[in-house]
Amino acid sequence: MAVDPAKRQAVTGVVRQHPAMSLVAVSPGIVVFGLLWWLTNPFLAILFGIVAVAGGYYLLTRRS
Q1: pLDDT at 38
Q2: Which residues contact 1 (CB under 8 A, 6 or more apart)?
Q3: DSSP secondary structure code for residue 1 in this structure
Q4: Which of 25, 40, 46, 49 counts the most CB atoms within 10 A of its CB?
Q5: Hey, what's the torsion of the CAs at 32, 42, 40, 56, to 10 degrees?
């Protein structure tokens, strides 16, 4: 399963032109990761990170 080249170009263009907007878009995930690491244990934070990355990859590669 490969990433659609048009989607890849669009995401790359947005990140290059608006890096702050990209950071704002992923900041809730960063906050949840930090809170899980601090309040529970690192294993849950790492597990959440893996699930978040896998979910994002799935959303980018699924067939519409």
Answers
A1: 94
A2: 61
A3: -
A4: 49
A5: 30
pLDDT value, residue 37: 92
**One-letter amino acid for residue 42 of the chain:** P
Assess contact for 52 and 29: CB atoms under 8 A: yes
**CB proximity list for 15: less than 8 A, separation 6 or greater:** 22
pLDDT single digits (tens) 6-64: 877 888 888 889 889 888 988 998 999 999 999 998 999 999 999 988 988 887 777 66
Sequence-ordered alpha helix ranges (H) in the chain: 5-17, 19-39, 42-61
Is residue 3 within 8 Å of 60, Cβ to Cβ? yes
Compute the distance between CA of residue 34 and CA of residue 27 in angstroms, rounded to an integer: 10
